[in-house]
């Protein structure tokens, strides 16, 4: 009745003499126009809500919608239709409509305040991450320092004090396709130990292998227990493969810094990657293996070569690509090797031919030459390792440490009230709670932030979407720096090879292995782009090794037997 009265009043105000039916029809027209307007508004709003729900990968979006305007505030029917149609069109969204007052003035002030807060927060975040963002000049300097340390490591007089040891491997030839026979291969250098049987023939390479876990108690126990465990694994494999009683040439991939005194003699210099077995440093690891075989009465071991996993990777890829003269590992640890001209190797007699040099570049910077790029987070991680001050380049690059670097950055951001609303995160205080595999998952292109939130929720971290975005940025910064530093080291290697050969342009292949390089969604791309920038006169192809450590060790043995 009130509506009819208002309709009559409005029509009479226009100089009309409306009947009862005129007023009724006018009322119906007004309702139709308002209903359409409210329904169209609801349709547009529902599209926004549905998009928000899907992009955040939510089953149900709970959200407040701030509303202002005379039509919404003053028209009850408009409000009712807007709310009911929105609920109908966006059933997975629980929406609360919140009327606002003085939206223009007060809202503008709030927007300004929020913008200023975000600018201040962005500045603080950039300050935290700035030391990890390396310029091209920084990387060129690292490249130059690596080259200097390489030259020192190759010199007879300077080798003992060089941080990059440049160890001779006594591997002087790469595969040429003429290798044949059956070989055993052992692979020790990380969390798992592998035994392989490799058959090399005219039709290619065929392999059988078994993975054995090395308990922490063994890796950090006595050397005798460690090598006993290795021989027990070999014996188990021989039984399973029907090899008991056969004497096959054996290649031993031993992925720790060694002073190689011959193809089958390598003295352990230091343990890395969490190993600390006693009574091994300073001893020939091949002899330790042979002694363990004698203790276990396994007389079928004929060790013909001991190689580093990096050398094995180069040899493995070299079987398929003759241009492969560099090996690279970026996984639990990191290292590189390459074919050097013998006349440059001052630590070994002889001037003719070439020899593969095991760089042991993980120790690059142990002499302090990289101190200015070490951040406070790197220093904290370094101090908590079992070998503080050692393997410093490796601690900036390899998978064993990147997750810990990220964890300490996140703790700093929480402390500065920039992450997780500054709330204490007890679980984030736990060492190694944020493994490097999280970086690989978080940085996958197209991964919804909801998935990132899920990872953080598993760590009992209640993350907003802004938090998830910042965590992703931290991961990207740390992994990109690692890849760029790796590329700077490689740039020093390829430029040296180019200059050794007196070439205007070097064409070479890098055989590469390691979970970080292979599984991280962006690492390989960053390495290749940075290397191209730092060494523009070198055309470098990267070939991923399918089984570098095992197949490569067997190929070293095969080349030796050839």
TrEMBL record:
<dbReference type="GO" id="GO:0019158">
    <property type="term" value="F:mannokinase activity"/>
</dbReference>
<dbReference type="GO" id="GO:0005829">
    <property type="term" value="C:cytosol"/>
</dbReference>
<dbReference type="GO" id="GO:0005536">
    <property type="term" value="F:D-glucose binding"/>
</dbReference>
<keyword id="KW-0418">Kinase</keyword>
<dbReference type="Pfam" id="PF03727">
    <property type="entry name" value="Hexokinase_2"/>
</dbReference>
<dbReference type="InterPro" id="IPR043129">
    <property type="entry name" value="ATPase_NBD"/>
</dbReference>
<keyword id="KW-0067">ATP-binding</keyword>
<dbReference type="GO" id="GO:0004340">
    <property type="term" value="F:glucokinase activity"/>
</dbReference>
<dbReference type="InterPro" id="IPR001312">
    <property type="entry name" value="Hexokinase"/>
</dbReference>
<dbReference type="GO" id="GO:0008865">
    <property type="term" value="F:fructokinase activity"/>
</dbReference>
<dbReference type="InterPro" id="IPR022672">
    <property type="entry name" value="Hexokinase_N"/>
</dbReference>
<comment type="pathway">
    <text>Carbohydrate metabolism; hexose metabolism.</text>
</comment>
<dbReference type="InterPro" id="IPR019807">
    <property type="entry name" value="Hexokinase_BS"/>
</dbReference>
<feature type="domain" description="Hexokinase C-terminal">
    <location>
        <begin position="325"/>
        <end position="559"/>
    </location>
</feature>
<dbReference type="InterPro" id="IPR022673">
    <property type="entry name" value="Hexokinase_C"/>
</dbReference>
<comment type="similarity">
    <text>Belongs to the hexokinase family.</text>
</comment>
<keyword id="KW-0547">Nucleotide-binding</keyword>
<keyword id="KW-0808">Transferase</keyword>
<protein>
    <recommendedName>
        <fullName>Phosphotransferase</fullName>
        <ecNumber>2.7.1.-</ecNumber>
    </recommendedName>
</protein>
<dbReference type="GO" id="GO:0001678">
    <property type="term" value="P:intracellular glucose homeostasis"/>
</dbReference>
<dbReference type="GO" id="GO:0006006">
    <property type="term" value="P:glucose metabolic process"/>
</dbReference>
<comment type="pathway">
    <text>Carbohydrate degradation; glycolysis; D-glyceraldehyde 3-phosphate and glycerone phosphate from D-glucose: step 1/4.</text>
</comment>
<dbReference type="GO" id="GO:0006096">
    <property type="term" value="P:glycolytic process"/>
</dbReference>
<feature type="domain" description="Hexokinase N-terminal">
    <location>
        <begin position="124"/>
        <end position="319"/>
    </location>
</feature>
<keyword id="KW-0324">Glycolysis</keyword>
<dbReference type="GO" id="GO:0005739">
    <property type="term" value="C:mitochondrion"/>
</dbReference>
<dbReference type="GO" id="GO:0005524">
    <property type="term" value="F:ATP binding"/>
</dbReference>
<dbReference type="Pfam" id="PF00349">
    <property type="entry name" value="Hexokinase_1"/>
</dbReference>
<feature type="domain" description="Hexokinase C-terminal">
    <location>
        <begin position="5"/>
        <end position="114"/>
    </location>
</feature>
